[in-house]
Design goal:
two-stranded parallel sheet; 42% helix; flat
Length: 52
Amino acid sequence: MGLLRLVIVDDEPILLEGLVKTYDWNGMGYEVVGFAQSGEQALKVIREKNHT
């Protein structure tokens, strides 16, 4: 089984950056495919990444 695809969402830019950069997502079995600052942005990212 491959890596699970992950979209990280947080409305605080500094926290979002920290979540993206701080953790070893690949080591935990995740591939970060995108990030967003709102639910609306997250849905757009998910729709875009679902077509790849």
